[in-house]
Specification:
The structure is a homodimer. By secondary structure, the first copy, chain A, is mostly helical. In chain A, 75% of the residues lie in helices and 0% in strands. Chain A contains nine helices and no strands. The first copy, chain A, has helices at 17-41, 44-50, 55-61, 65-87, 94-110, 113-122, 127-150, 159-180, 186-201. In chain A, helix 5 (94-110) packs parallel to helix 8. The interface between A and B is medium-sized, with 21 and 21 residues. The structure holds a DNA duplex.
Chain lengths: 202, 202
Amino acid sequence: MPPSRPTHKPRKMPQQRRSRRTRERILDAAAQVFADCGYASGTTDRIAAEARLSVGSLYQYFPNKDAILFVLVQRHMDHAAQVVRQVLAEPRPLEEWLPALTRAVVRLHAENPGLHQVLFEQAPRPPELVLGFHEAEAEAAAAVAALLRADPALKVAEPARTARYVVAIIESLTHRFISHSPELDPEELAGEICSIVTGYLR
Amino acid sequence: MPPSRPTHKPRKMPQQRRSRRTRERILDAAAQVFADCGYASGTTDRIAAEARLSVGSLYQYFPNKDAILFVLVQRHMDHAAQVVRQVLAEPRPLEEWLPALTRAVVRLHAENPGLHQVLFEQAPRPPELVLGFHEAEAEAAAAVAALLRADPALKVAEPARTARYVVAIIESLTHRFISHSPELDPEELAGEICSIVTGYLR
DNA sequence: TTAGAATATGAGGAAAACCTCGCCTTTTGT
DNA sequence: ACAAAAGGCGAGGTTTTCCTCATATTCTAA
């Protein structure tokens, strides 16, 4: 009587090698399609076509369209967090870590501007992701604050607060120029951001 | 024989006072609905309901959904351009025009953060609007460049380039904090942006 | 080799959004 | 007061997108 809820397959993790690749193909295709068409027009049919798959297969691995995007965002954030963590790991003077950090962030975004715009502007932002984003940012800010405190050449009154702004400057200027002025040379952008932050810290 | 193309009414400008108000009601309702639901979920039906109108009436004044948003964006840009123009009109020392400019921009955005996010992130951006946006920005940058040149206390090597970054800093930091950290006090934000720019210009 | 599990297929159902069109109501000008 | 123009209405046609499910193919392991 209660046929319970088949609703939809629980979308197991793939078990054979074939399907692990299929999952990757879907994610790659989605990244491509979202970058080209934006989120709203990046339909699941289009993604499946780009991945040379049928829609049905796509839904074996993702319960819905948002889930695909969710994984893409998570991936990017994990990657970025890892890169930033590495750059800020050990104590170094400002002249070293600031350019390194800025260049890393700019490069991270310059790789695929179209996708980034979709990922962080057009996409629906479930609270879970917003949380993750804030955490990642807080972690970066904490690392920067530590570097500010460790550098005897700097006399920053409120390292925690200042660090938050440093992170915000790098992140938001990068985002803005990559999105709105893709013709700009990434290296020049990174250089200019460095002077801005340096000026701010003196 | 040729019923030609009624396609749809040419959407004349309203002629009676009643309909001028109707048009306004639609725009106000759209602003509200877009701010609440985002662009994709801000359906024309919802907008009409919010405006206490039927969808049919809505389509008397706007040929489609995008057109409504287009007008909202134009309005905001016109308003912003006017405010900025006024702030930067006559030559003043940095300590005067920079806080004035920053506060004006921050306030402009703090008024209705939700709507702004939709207007400038989620919405489709027809090239026409992007053009307008770049022009407005170029105008602001030119005005700032003039002020940088006029101030004898400043020795900016490349006023034109620097001015573009000044505008970018103000715009993008404002955007970022208003969108991602609505709890932040707008005045504090304005103050911090001023120190950043000031540091950059020394 | 072969049974059964895993994976892939794609036509089409369901839901949602856009927009139209014929008709009714209000306003205007004479 | 009345005809004509302007404005308003809203059920429903059309299109688009998401997602399912019955069936087919491929793989694994005994």
